[in-house]
Write a structure and sequence with these properties.
- The structure is a single chain.
- Helices cover 46% and strands 12% of the residues.
- The N and C termini lie far apart (42 Å).
- It has helices at 10-24, 30-54, 95-116, 121-138, 142-149, 177-181; strands spanning 2-6, 68-73, 79-84, 162-164, 167-170.
């Protein structure tokens, strides 16, 4: 089973995405499914956008209707998304404009999943930021990630998301891994600082 859609039209398939995730993670609540779907989506779309940005492409010219996605159940038995994005023109977007572009691109998904959960949009924006932060971290450009993701007025800007020595050490939002495993992930913002691993 697979579901094809564009990032701009996530609302059209949000029920199908929630149902797919419920097939493989039936113990989750509806709110958990919304957060988990956003987490997986953000960690696929975010790195795609970050790679394009680090290659000097113009994020400001990206359009959600051109971001083709296929949701599927991966061989390991979990939700996955394949991303087929457009060739963006050259010209790296300065940080505040890149923040606006990221917000515009993720907005439809955030609002669709917020309604389906129901879950506060703010929680989903933080998870979207985590996916983008992960992408820039993979590219070795955490400074760029910080510049974009902490831009004044950006809906995903938050104090929970933290980097240290070029790595993410704390996520901004909870992806609900704890609902699946019974334990917090290493970077969960719900963990007490004293128990959070520090990466040198």
């Amino acid at each position: 089973m697979s579901v094809q859609f564009t990032l701009e039209r996530t609302a059209d398939v949000v029920d199908a995405l929630m149902a797919m995730n419920a097939q493989v993670l039936p113990s989750m609540t509806s709110r958990d499914h919304a957060a988990w779907v956003m987490n997986v989506l953000a960690h696929e779309v975010g790195p795609w956008l970050s790679r394009a940005d680090c290659a000097g492409r113009a994020l400001a010219r990206a359009n959600g209707r051109d971001m083709n996605l296929t949701a599927r159940i991966a061989p390991g038995g979990y939700l996955a998304f394949d991303v087929d994005g457009p060739d963006l023109p050259d010209g790296r977007t300065y940080a505040p404009a890149a923040a606006i572009a990221v917000a515009r691109l993720f907005g439809p998904s955030v609002h669709a999943l917020a309604y389906a959960g129901p879950l506060a949009p703010r929680a989903l924006w933080r998870i979207a930021a985590d996916g983008m932060a992960w992408g820039w971290t993979e590219q070795g450009e955490t400074r760029r990630g910080q510049d974009v993701l902490t831009s004044y007025g950006a809906p995903f800007a938050n104090r929970q998301l933290q980097w240290q020595t070029g790595e993410m050490v704390q996520r901004g939002g909870c992806c609900r891994y704890v609902a699946v495993s019974g334990t917090f992930c290493a970077g969960c913002p719900l963990r007490k600082k004293a128990t959070r691993p520090v990466r040198a």
